[in-house]
């Protein structure tokens, strides 16, 4: 018994040490690059909140920006402020993760589950960006815990907290709307147990809607009128689903192609494996073990299954599948289900050792990715730096890169261009200037059926790790031959 107690203490100490070391390492290596359009939007919002000027873009993410503004009182850099807010808020999620696991397994194993989930490398790289996902994932864990707690409690104890946390969740990241299915599940369970009267159920539904109005009304006030806010929301929604959002509606990719990309590339290889063959192998092994207890997990972990499936469907049809970060919430639910299942049903030394190997593999990969993300200059930054060497009379035509160039005060003129017809007309004003284009512009022109043979010459290429920016990690600069 004494030997067993020592092993338990070692397990707790190891898990807590990993958690603390990774947290401090995150704070030691803060990512302060606003390398994408969205990241610039968020960073500029700390200077002046204006959705019409895309500071940030719709729907405004008010609670995320408020968190960033609070940290900005102590940190001068806007982008770093958002990243630090994500890091601090996500670290707080170890409390709900631990308590969720504690309902199923022992204290030492709960610490182990918490450490493994927290150390997930791709998740941490997502948290370490000035994007709303990091704070959204933290809020999601608190929301999930509050719902599970309310479902398990007898009567109506604690059933108001999920309504409050769902409002905070959507005020941080509106695309997490599908997780509202958790509230439906909670209401259904309570109704089935006859713990709600029709009046009590109606009151809670109304309260949930009123809580959402807190941040929505705040955005309406910031835009000046309901009409202006509605026009802005409709314009953004229309663009997201029919133009630039790369959803199932706007993409030429087949549904099966999107499913394959989401499941194997985004979910398994990026999300669960963090581009590591060792971690991928461990995940497969744990997955095979968990299959023997699939019925148990379905019965006892119904809520995370429901939430994961709901969001996967949303990501499949309404999100950009070229960006693996959009599937991160599903990754977290899968990890939780997988670890709870194997450690609950197979609490033996072999499984524990496998999980410890996973923890250390995650930690090593996380340390590498955290440092690289904080120190490697993104391709868009490299492009902005190169423009300082170009002739001041040059003009550069870009796609989304122009947002970053504006943010970094690039010394040459640059324009966002979408169609060849507009480009052909515009360059007539720059006959005495050197004209440059990025590869995204070239690719866009070619997709429109334009033959550019003999009209362009590659000048320079810029590269950064695609795991942090899957769209603009490779930028090629071309010169237009007039």
Fold and architecture overview:
It contains 22 helices and five strands. The termini are far apart. Helix 1 (2-28) runs parallel beside helix 18 (349-375), helix 5 runs parallel beside helix 8 and helix 14 packs antiparallel against helix 18 (349-375). It has helices at 2-28, 37-45, 62-72, 78-92, 94-102, 107-118, 121-127, 132-152, 161-172, 181-192, 198-223, 226-242, 255-272, 277-291, 294-300, 302-318, 328-345, 349-375, 379-386, 401-407, 420-426, 439-447; strands at residues 395-398, 413-416, 435-438, 456-463, 474-480. 43% of the residues are buried. The chain is 65% helix and 6% strand. The mean pLDDT is 91. The protein is mainly α and 482 residues long. A five-stranded mixed beta sheet has the order 2-1-3-5-4. Strand 1 (395-398), helix 20 and strand 2 (413-416) form a beta-alpha-beta unit.
Describe the secondary structure blueprint for this structure.
Elements: H1 2-28, H2 37-45, H3 62-72, H4 78-92, H5 94-102, H6 107-118, H7 121-127, H8 132-152, H9 161-172, H10 181-192, H11 198-223, H12 226-242, H13 255-272, H14 277-291, H15 294-300, H16 302-318, H17 328-345, H18 349-375, H19 379-386, E1 395-398, H20 401-407, E2 413-416, H21 420-426, E3 435-438, H22 439-447, E4 456-463, E5 474-480
Parallel strand pairs: 1-2, 1-3
Antiparallel strand pairs: 3-5, 4-5
Helix pairs in contact: 1-6, 1-18, 3-4, 4-8, 5-6, 5-8, 6-18, 7-8, 7-18, 8-9, 8-10, 9-11, 13-17, 14-17, 14-18, 16-17
